[in-house]
From TrEMBL:
One Pfam family per UniProt: SBP_bac_1
InterPro entries to which the protein is assigned, alphabetical: Bact_solute-bd_prot1, SBP
Protein name per UniProt: Extracellular solute-binding protein
PANTHER family, sorted: ARABINOSE-BINDING PROTEIN-RELATED, BLR3389 PROTEIN
Superkingdom in the source lineage: Bacteria
Entry coiled-coil feature ranges: none
Length: 436
């Protein structure tokens, strides 16, 4: 469940975190040119931070640290304290040199305040960075095509999980097209099985459906305009069509009658899938460890996964992915030692770092990870995710983390109202176009 916690916390608190306490502290030649001394790095203080702690320890003892005259002090900040701590630090003279984030909208306010280094030219001129990561991952954390972060943890794509036994008993295969999905829904309902589990008590679970449908219907360009802050882009026909499909699914009881009272947090939706009461579940890749922890036999024998289906006649590629590409290190424009910071970022592309992530159960975003995944706790699942992302023309960051911070909460509210039948598809689009 820690993957879930990391994914969601910033989405909930992003507006508070990023719109208060910032000052436009751009870099100066004297600041960026400094060398020597100790750099500070803020990291989300969960169990996975042990990977970053080990990387810092090794870097500080390396020839690169000696060459650049810089070492790094890692500060593990508890998740509940991270947003406030980072916001306060970035608005003060003691901003961290590097810090953990989710890319996209999670760093927009810092970019707008000229507080981060645009890494484009650095990546292009540094082979270890340019060739070290899957291109879609670098771009997923970018803003207006400019990267401000280097991947430092595992990927978390959203997948369509399914109960193999339920499908086998029904003589069905998981859907690869929207038409097939609708047909399968009818067949499961006739057998008294709910087509999809949905933890509707947690609004972010509904977001995944809208995100994928907009991508499959209109392609990733639709959301890119929205992510760029163009509220009128909510009026794209793909958004309305996606909302209409959601309404049809809800009206057809594809999610059951009581989905709005089912939680993901307490395992409610996952239990429906594991117990065979629901056939499918659209969820982030953390669903696998969640199932493994709660229903081990099911996870190891009857849990399946596929890509979200193609939409018949849609502009989006079935290979496109939605979810959480990874977490990133960003570099403050006021770093004490830019050269040391870049040398440290290069270690995130190393085979040694990649192996450490794999051993921890993560799916790295490095270009060399594919050949190393046999050592993963579940090689089949690891390889599926890696190849899915590796072949993805586009990897769209979860909307709640990608949009402007002050759009996140109202957007989730409008999505929830659509699912609850409290607004029509047209009213949904109108409300989103009104976001300021």
């Amino acid at each position: 469940m820690e993957s879930y916690s990391r994914r969601w916390f910033l989405g909930v608190s992003g507006a508070t975190m990023l719109t208060a306490g910032l000052t436009a502290c751009g870099s100066s030649d004297s600041d960026s040119g400094k060398s020597g001394g100790q750099l500070t790095a803020f990291v989300w203080g969960d169990d996975a931070a042990k990977i970053q702690e080990d990387a810092v320890r090794k870097f500080n003892a390396s020839s690169a640290a000696k060459k650049t005259g810089g070492t790094i002090k890692l500060q593990r900040i508890p998740g509940s304290d991270y947003p406030a701590k980072l916001r306060t630090a970035m608005g003060s003279p003691s901003a961290p040199d590097l810090f953990f984030n989710w890319g996209g909208g999670s760093i927009k306010a810092y970019v707008d305040a000229d507080q981060l280094i645009d890494l484009h030219d650095i990546i292009e001129s540094t082979p270890a960075l340019k060739n070290g990561f899957l291109p879609s991952i670098i771009q997923s954390g970018a803003l207006e095509g400019r990267p401000y972060g280097i991947p430092m943890r595992g990927m978390q794509p959203v997948l369509l999980f399914f109960n193999k036994k339920v499908f086998k008993d029904a003589g069905l295969e998981p859907p690869t097209s929207w038409t097939q999905l609708l047909d399968i829904n009818k067949k499961f309902k006739s057998r008294g099985i709910q087509p999809f589990a949905l933890g509707g008590a947690d609004k972010w679970t509904e977001l995944m459906w809208v995100s994928y449908l907009v991508d499959r219907i209109g392609g990733p360009e639709v959301f890119r305009k929205i992510q760029g802050g163009d509220a009128s882009a909510w009026g794209d026909p793909a958004v309305l069509r996606a909302a209409e499909e959601i309404k049809s699914l809800v009206d057809d009881e594809a999610f059951g009658k009581g989905f709005s009272s089912v939680q993901y947090n307490n395992g409610g939706a996952s239990t429906l899938l594991a117990k065979g009461k629901a056939a499918m579940h659209l969820m982030g890749s953390w669903e696998y460890p969640t199932q493994l922890g709660k229903f081990k036999d099911f996870a190891e024998n009857d849990l399946g996964w596929v890509a979200f289906p193609a939409y018949d006649g849609g502009a989006g590629d079935i290979k496109n992915v939605v979810g959480n590409p990874t977490n990133y290190w960003s570099v403050s424009a006021r770093t004490k030692n830019r050269e040391a910071a870049i040398e440290f970022l290069k270690t995130c592309a190393s085979e040694e770092y990649t192996k450490a992530l794999i051993a921890n159960g993560d799916i790295p975003t490095t270009a060399n990870a594919g050949a190393l995944l046999e050592d993963s706790p579940n090689p089949e699942f690891a390889k599926f995710q890696y190849e899915l992302v590796q072949n993805a023309p586009a990897f769209t960051l979860s909307w709640d983390q990608a949009v402007k911070p002050d759009w996140s909460a109202p957007m989730l509210t409008e999505i929830d109202k659509l699912f609850l039948g409290q607004s029509s598809p047209k009213e949904f689009v109108t409300a989103l176009k009104g976001l300021k």
